[in-house]
Amino acid sequence: MDMSAPLATVPLQILLVLSDGPVHGYGILQGVREHSGGAIKLGTGSLYRHLSKLIGAGLVAELRPGPSADPRRGSSFRLTAKGGQTLAAERDRVEALLASLNAATRRVRRGSV
Amino acid sequence: MTPDDLYAILLGLYPGSFRARFGDDMRATFAQDRAQAHAAGRRSTAAFWVRTIVEAAMCGTSERFQLATRHDRASARGTGRVMRAGFFHDCRDAFRAWRATPLVSAVAVVSLALGIGANTALFSILNGLVLKPLAVRQPDTLALLDGGEWTNPIWEDIRARQTDLFGGAFAWSSERFNLADQGPTDMVSGAYASGEMFDVLGVHAAVGRLLRSGDDVRGGGAAGAVAVISERLWRERFDASPAAIGRRLSVNGIPFTIVGVMPQGFFGPDVGTLFDVIVPLGDEALIHGAESMLPGRLTWWLEIMVRRKPGQSLEQANAVLRAAQPQIRAATLPPTYRPSLQEYLKQPFSLVSAAEGYSSLRQRYEQPLTIIMVVVGAVLLIACANIASLLLARSIARRRELVIRLALGASRLRLATLLLLESGMLACAGAALGLFAARVGSALLVRQLGAAVFLDLPLDLRVLAFTGAVAAVTALLFGLAPVAGILNTAPNEILKEHARTVTGDRRFSFRNALVVLQVALSLALVVGAGLFLRTFASLTTLPLGFDAAPLVTVNVNVQRSGVPAAGRAALFERFRETATAVPGVSEAAMSSIQPMSGQGWNTIIDADGAPAGGDRARQSWVNAVSPRFFATYGIRLVAGRDFSPDDREGAPSVAIVNDAFARKFVGGGNPVGREFRGRIGKPTTDTYRVVGLVSDAAYRRIREGMVPTVYLPISQTRSSAAMAMTVRTLPAMRGTIESDLARALGTVDGSAAFTIRPFDTYLETAVRQERLVAMLSGFFGALALALAALGLYGVTTYGVSRRRAEIGVRIALGAEPSGVVRLVLWRVGWLVGTGVTAGMALSWWASRFISDTLLYGVTSHDTPTLLAAAAVLICISAVAAWLPARRASRLDPVLVLRET
Q: Residue B487's closest CA among B418, B385, B388?
């Protein structure tokens, strides 16, 4: 996972879903689908590939299910501290981009380009 | 195979390490996702599965690819790992190659999917009907008492001996039950079954309990009249609620208590029927009352199945049963002495293995279904030939790319692998799509087998293995074509830019051979289709002796009216009069046998002019009818008179006979006034005087033709509880009159049960098998023709394009357009001629496998059909080849010769 480039859409959505707290696999699927309003069609296979990459980059961790957990739901995933920092960094990057975009549109309207 | 099992297989596409880490999680998440998609409906489920399979394929292979390249980068060149990465490179290349020619790929995948789908659909039906063992405990130890049906006394004797002779035995008889309390009937498939059936089969209830020996007592067991219902009925009528246990169920008007629900995977010992209601055998006495079949020593209605003891072989079981046969025979011999009783139980008992259960459906459809399987197999071959042609053309178009690869150091083997991989991918895609198509197709086909037919068509290992094998074989068949092409090319020739060859193509090229094969196969299929279509046409145009269009039938059952048997004749007459009074009805009549319904009643006749010989030669069919029966059916009264109210009980016994009877028993003269003797429906022989002669009419089956029939007045025969009433109206009014009839008849007796249906329903059922075979063979024959025409068109176009230079030269030198057309068609004509000849030989040889039971009015070696099929094929080929030929004749020689 290349940390200098902006996060791709699907990993970003996954991190957003996890920012509310630990979720199990199917919950992440539902969250991503709802968040994107159905635009992102995520399936089990691709979800776990993304999760595997995110875990490899240290942004997400897997929570082993406790003895009383429902085995049908699978184990849960949570955001690590590094993941939280990445989200914050992404927010900063988007804010900076938004600021420069606003400035550019103002300049265009004033006709100074 | 559950969906979760299927997903577990798909997970195999992922690398092992990934699976070990996330496999359980993925399965859990998948299960929840699938449940949600399933709840949203069938279309969303189908879309979900397509997405899952595509995603698994792409993600799994990507993950493996990444793993493989990561290993490559990390380590030195271990050939195994390089091969793995190279393999996925090739897969990606193959996928890209297909994506580059989307139209060709789509056509290839769709035609392959249709071909494989048709084959899989038929195989899954054959699997469900013939190959699949019963879903019971140890089905291979079950054996059926073969040779027809048995009487209840015989069953009771075998039941008493079952622990001595076998490990268990049971009997059943399928029956349609009316679940409505009164009025119009609500018929379901059901059966009478002996109490031990579920124990012997080893089936446990889903809810409540199943029947026990204690329930199977004549007239009702200790728990009263109990019944068990199927899981389907439980879902449909009781909302799968546990409160259904203990509820009352009206079976033919008798109150039964539901004590249990049969498990979901259990469909009964009769393959092809789902028994919705099963009632103990002994309770048949409650339902039929005085007409109970239980004491009947000459009423053959039960199927008997036994389970062999552990360690007992089929031969041993047969031996012990045959050893007991004389005692069984002596104990169940009917009391009345007749010479023909020597035949009673003379044939030795024969037990046959019944691991796949018993099925009347199988007997009727096994042979036609096998023939259709061969037909779809041939269609698939023709489709494969087309795809092989397509791939060959494609590989020739890519020949420069392939030659460059050769020049850059790829071995021919490597290229061959590449091409085979492309074909393999095509076959996999076609097989996957084909599986979906097969689910739909087989469900549609099963519905054509009959309204009450139920077949379990699971996606089990046999079906999957079949699909896989078909896909592999087709992949090899059309995959080898471009491979052979590649292995045979000389690279130099291809790199020469557009060598202008004036000589024609080789006579016996591979593509030409494919076309010959296609033409031959399609001819054989068209011949088959022609035979079956002619059979169907013959049967439907066969004269019945009456006109069925204006007739509506009503089955009237007065079991619950409480009217004694003696008063039934008067009650039926009231029904008949009421029906006649309904507006739109011109005639109505009663009969004990509904013609063309499959029921039959026959007897032995003694007459002066009767043919000599055994009982068989003096057999005649019988029907008890009311006055106006012949007018209702439109059967002509040739001589004498119809029955009248004077022909009542106590009056001299009279009869009306048909022409066939007169020919057989009276030497063809006018039988009116003559007499004959017979024991018809009574314990004693009676002398009957013929008072009328009618023209012939079909009795039970269309194929049997016009059989000798004796008609007796209802009033002089013993009435059963159910009679068939036939009503004559206008064909246009048949639909509307059903409700009027039901209402009118309901006013006569509210507790009687009627089943009203137009007469055509019986005719449709009578030719159902022939219609199905004709329809399918006609459809696939036409498909084969279309595919062969397509193949021929392709080959002709290709041949013309190869010879553009030659044709250009000819036109430049002054050839007429018609001359060019003739030139092209002449070449094609050779191919078609060879194909037609080969096809005729193939048809002649293959016709021996079509038994005469499948045909009517034609023999399997029918020359006119053969010649007609050849003519059809020649015409279609001419049209298919004419289009490119015409284009060839319009070639501008200047443009052609200028091509560099």
A: B418
The strand pair at B226-229 and B254-261 is best described as: parallel
Residues near B666 by beta carbon (within 8 Å), at least 6 away in sequence: B607, B608, B609, B674
Contact A41 B51 (CB under 8 A): yes
Q: How far apart, in whole angstroms, are the C-alpha atoms of residue B369 and residue B447?
A: 14
The predicted pLDDT at position B532 comes to: 93
Closest CA to B211 of B284, B262, B143: B262
**Residue environment code for B569-586, b if the CB has 16+ CB neighbours within 10 A, otherwise e:** bebbbebbebbbebebbe
Count Cβ–Cβ pairs < 8 Å, chain A vs chain B. Answer: 58
Cα B545 to Cα B599, B636, B872: the distances in Å are 18, 9, 36
> Is B817 within 8 Å of B890 (Cβ atoms)?
yes
A41 touches chain B (CB under 8 A): yes
CB nearest B18 (choices: A41, A46, A52): A52
Using the Cβ of A56 and the Cβ atoms of chain B, whether some distance falls under 8 Å is answered with no
Q: How many other C-beta atoms are found inside a 10 Å radius of the C-beta of residue A33?
A: 17
> What is the residue-wise DSSP string for A42-55?
--HHHHHHHHHHHH
Side chain identity at B574, as an amino acid letter? Answer: R
Spatial separation of the C-alpha atoms in residues B329 and B346, rounded to whole Å: 9
β partners of residue B221 = B224
Res B249: pLDDT: 92
pLDDT for B603 equals: 84
Q: How many whole angstroms separate alpha carbon B884 and alpha carbon B900?
A: 23
The rounded distance, in Å, linking the Cα atoms of B774 and A11 is: 58
Positive or negative torsion for Cα B248, B249, B254, B260: negative
pLDDT for residue B37: 87
Contact B55 A75 (CB under 8 A): no
Instruction: List, in order, residues 6 or more apart from B363 with CB less than 8 Å away.
Output: none
Q: Are B307 and B169 in contact (CB under 8 A)?
A: yes
For residues B52 and B42, give the distance between their C-alpha atoms in angstroms, rounded to a whole number: 15
Q: pLDDT at residue B519 above 90?
A: yes
> Consecutive 10-residue runs of chain A (113 residues): their mean pLDDT?
69 90 89 84 87 89 76 82 90 91 87 59
A-chain residue closest to B55, CA distance: A45
Mark which residues 83-112 of A lie under 8 Å from B by CB.
Answer: none
Q: How far is A112 from chain B (nearest CA, A)?
A: 47
Q: Is residue B279 a contact partner of residue B193, using CB atoms and an 8 Å limit?
A: yes
Scanning the structure block, which residue is given the tokens 């996954």? A14
ipTM: 0.84
Q: Compute the nearest-CA separation of A9 from chain B (Å).
A: 17
3-state secondary structure of B725: strand
CB B582 within 8 A of CB B740: yes
Substitution target from A44, A60, A64 for chain B, most B beta carbons within 10 A: A44
How far apart are the C-alpha atoms of B106 and A85, rounded to whole Å? 48
Alpha helices in B75-138 (DSSP H): 79-100, 102-126
> Distance (Å, rounded) from C-alpha B623 to C-alpha B713?
9
Q: At what angle do helices B3-11 and B42-74 cross, to 10 degrees?
A: 20
- B96 φ/ψ sector (left φ>0, alpha ψ -120 to 50, else beta): alpha
What's the rounded Cα separation, in Å, for the pair B568 and B573?
Answer: 8
Residue type, B396: I
Nearest CB among A26, A41, A49 relative to B29 is that of: A26
